[in-house]
Structures are given as structure tokens and as C-alpha cells.
Amino acid sequence: MSKIIIKEANIKDTTKINDYRLRNTTTIEQLTLDSNPGYAAILVYGRYILFTDLNWKGKFIAAIYEFSTDKNDMDDPIRLKETAKEVFDDSGHAAEWCFNKIK
């Protein structure tokens, strides 16, 4: 039987927004593992990664990550660029906030 080890985020390396904790530096794969299945949206848009997810209070958060390298591969490091100060009623409005910020 194999043993699964889940690496917890170091609190010092995270940003807390609207009752949700985001890693400051991560990968798209780890972002997927950290998010809520069925609620999160991860959109790669050029060198940006637009992220929305449901917080524990039932509202959606929005964040923008950026690739740390020029390759933009899925396993390359990404860094947190900006987060929404407000929460949203749905993921569509959270994604709209992201798109408006990177225009």
C-alpha cells in the first residue's frame, strides 16, 4: 500500500483574502489540488492564470497569478500578482474581475 504525503502550505508563504488562503508561489497543478472541486476555475490567459474559487462562507474569491518563467508550462512556478478585495456571488463575476484587471 502506498503512502500519500500532502505537503501543507507554509503560512508565511501564503496570502489570506476573504476567508481563503492562497499560496504566494505555486504551480497550476498545486493550485488545482488546493482548490474546491466543482467550484474553482483556473484559466490560463497568456502569461496570466486567472483563479476563482468558493470560500468557506459561500462566496467566490478572485486572484491573478503570473508565470515566473518565459516557458509558461503547466508545471512552471507561478506567483500571486493580485487579489480581489471584494467577494462575488458567482464565479462568472469573479472571472470578470480578473479579466478587467489584466486588460
What does this structure look like?
It contains two helices and seven strands. Strand 5 (48-54) and strand 6 (60-67) form a beta hairpin. With 103 residues, it is of the alpha+beta class. It has helices spanning 28-34, 91-102; strands spanning 14-17, 20-23, 25-26, 41-45, 48-54, 60-67, 78-83. The model is unreliable at 1-7 (pLDDT under 50). The strands form two sheets. A five-stranded antiparallel β-sheet has the order 3-7-6-5-4. Strands 1-2 form a two-stranded antiparallel sheet. The chain starts with 13 loop residues before the first strand and ends with a helix.
- N-to-C SSE string, H for helix and E for strand: EEEHEEEEH
Shape: globular
Query: Main β-sheet, in a few words?
Result: 5 strands, antiparallel
Oligomer: single chain
Count of DSSP-assigned helices: 2
Average per-residue pLDDT, rounded, comes to: 88
Specify the structural class.
alpha+beta
Strand order, largest beta sheet = 3-7-6-5-4
Rg measurement, Å: 14 Å
- Amino- and carboxy-terminal Cα gap: 49 Å
What percentage of residues falls in helices of 4 or more residues?
10-25%
Residue windows where pLDDT falls under 50 for at least 5 positions: 1-7
Number of strands: 7
What share of residues are in beta strands?
A: 25-35%
Draw up the topology in text.
Layout lengths: L13 E4 L2 E4 L1 E2 L1 H7 L6 E5 L2 E7 L5 E8 L10 E6 L7 H12 L1
Antiparallel strand pairs: 1-2, 3-7, 4-5, 5-6, 6-7
Structure summary:
The protein is an alpha+beta fold and 103 residues long. It has helices at residues 28-34, 91-102, and strands at residues 14-17, 20-23, 25-26, 41-45, 48-54, 60-67, 78-83.
